[in-house]
Design brief:
Largest sheet: none
Number of domains: 1
Shape: globular
Number of helices: 19
Radius of gyration: 23 Å
Number of strands: 0
Order of helices and strands: HHHHHHHHHHHHHHHHHHH
Length: 510
């Protein structure tokens, strides 16, 4: 066992140990389900902002997106980044403050299904049940992408068997999520978001300097692309680069509409619900926007320059299946072993910061809205917490099963789950916050129609079906919600009165 190998192991053990320590530290602060699921709405602006962005970006920011750019998909990666930057900013600008107010006004809701149930006075709790089913389904897929990222990282860095790395990543994520709840997730996400940010910037700068500066570096990338198109680096690479040459308007639209997903992401929306005060949202928005813009620029630099960097420094060209390890492969070349180990933890951080948030949101949705809301309404706080922890474990186990294929694509898994949430919850959240006439039947129709559209569209290929499924799903959900709400003429007067009271709330009230 070499000294470099030992140094990387020490870096990873220290990092993973610290994450579990935070879980233990925050475990004693969870005295109620509100504390465990939402941190008692006491989280400050810096932690809220970095936690939201770290949980948002996941392993695909440091593996999926750079891998896409590495394979000649710079155009697709860049347009996707633009869509996500716009979506991030608009979500903070349009949704954050109203959602914080509205969830307080409607029964002090601590989960998205509970908020929708309270907002639309759904005594049958059908809306809650449908919401939970969608959350658990799509979050299980999303969590699987995080587990795949962990497994690929351990395989790339330590040469571990893919499945062994998968189990290690799952165990650590489970440990601090089950123990510490929302506060532990926010604290670890804050650290993970900072580490991701620093690692991306430094790696991008080193690549630029090593390759002779921006002009020289991108000239070499252009030359590499020409040679790839001519078949100098194999048929698989040639196919990828040729596909990028035909990147048209349909592909650009599909990339840009990723931004629609933000309005329906439960693990991001709960950050708005858990912030200390609406007065903190402006600062959080600025922090989050700066973080996202710089992180994406650095990611695109690392992915696109990685082709030339690995070829020049190590004479290596990654296969399409290994392209998502471009970030980890580059860092192992450019830094001393221990420093590389610390920065490689940024990739682990990216995967963990999303998986932990998703597990927590999915488990809270089931335990709070199904178990306590439908199955056992008189359940104690302790029982709800225990059910939530068991649910975390079960969802993680299913996600682990979905991740067993070493050929799994992080980007593809994230893409499917992202569309699922954006096209179902996105229109419902927007209408719930801004349209007084939205009704329970409209919300139910929207969730079902949006979900069906995404799943159906995802499994059809060719022609119009090449458009990213989030767009048709979002439109269908929006139309069905509006139409069914208009058809429901007998609006609940109590619901309308509460909506009017919510619109009159000031920042001082929440």
């Amino acid at each position: 066992m070499s000294s470099d190998f030992i140094a990387k192991i020490i870096a990873f053990v220290l990092y993973l140990g610290f994450m579990v320590f935070l879980g233990l530290r925050y475990a004693k602060k969870n005295n109620s389900s509100s504390d465990f699921f939402l941190g008692g709405r006491k989280v400050g602006p810096w932690m809220t902002a970095l936690s939201a962005e770290a949980s948002d970006m996941s392993g695909w920011l440091l593996m999926g997106l750079p891998g896409l750019a590495y394979l000649g998909g710079m155009k697709e990666a860049a347009w996707t980044a633009i869509g996500l930057i716009a979506g991030t900013y608009l979500n903070w600008l349009i949704v954050a403050k109203p959602l914080r107010k509205c969830t307080v006004a409607f029964g002090d809701s601590i989960t998205i299904p509970e908020f929708l149930t309270n907002r639309f006075k759904d005594k049958s709790r059908i809306l809650s049940a449908i919401s939970v089913i969608l959350i658990v389904f799509f979050f299980t897929i999303y969590t699987a992408s995080g587990f795949v990222a962990c497994a690929k990282l351990f395989q790339s860095v330590f040469g571990l068997d893919y499945h062994t790395g998968l189990i290690i990543g799952m165990v650590v994520i489970l440990a601090y999520t089950i123990l510490g709840g929302y506060l532990a997730v926010c604290a670890t996400d804050f650290i993970q978001g900072s580490l991701m940010f620093i690692a991306l910037i430094i790696t991008g700068i080193v690549m630029l300097v090593t390759l002779g500066g921006p002009a020289e570096a991108f000239a070499k990338v252009s030359e590499f692309g020409t040679r790839a198109i001519n078949g100098n680096f194999g048929e698989a690479m040639q196919t990828k680069f040729l596909a990028n040459q035909n990147y048209g308007i349909t592909s650009i639209i599909s990339a840009l509409v990723w931004g629609l997903g933000y309005f329906g992401m439960p693990h991001i929306l709960v950050r708005f619900m858990g912030i200390r005060s609406t007065k903190d949202i402006k600062l959080s928005r600025r922090i989050a926007t700066v973080w996202v813009v710089i992180a994406f620029i650095a990611t695109l630099i690392v992915g696109s320059l990685g082709t030339v960097y690995l070829k020049n420094i190590k004479d290596v060209i990654l296969s399409p299946a290994a392209a998502e390890t471009i970030f980890s492969e580059s860092m192992q070349i450019m830094f001393p072993a221990f420093i590389a180990g610390i920065f490689l933890c940024a990739i682990l951080a990216a995967a963990m910061s999303t998986a932990d948030s998703q597990l927590l949101v999915a488990s809270s949705a089931f335990s709070q809205d199904v178990f306590k809301g439908i199955i056992k309404k008189d359940a104690s706080e302790k029982t709800v917490l225990n059910v939530s922890r068991i649910t975390v474990f079960i969802i993680a186990a299913i996600a682990c099963v979905l991740s067993v294929d070493p050929e799994s694509s992080i980007f593809s898994l994230v893409s499917y789950a992202w569309a699922g949430f954006g096209a179902t919850f996105g229109p419902i959240i927007l209408l719930a916050l801004f349209w007084r006439g939205t009704t329970r039947n409209g919300a139910i129709a929207g969730l079902i129609s949006g979900g069906i559209t995404v799943v159906t569209w995802h499994n059809l290929k060719g022609g119009i079906f090449n458009i990213y499924e989030i767009l048709p799903g979002f439109i269908v959900c929006l139309i069905f919600t509006v139409v069914f709400s208009l058809l429901q003429k007998n609006k609940d007067p109590e619901m309308l009165a509460e909506f009017d009271a919510y619109k009159k709330m000031s920042d001082a009230d929440c």
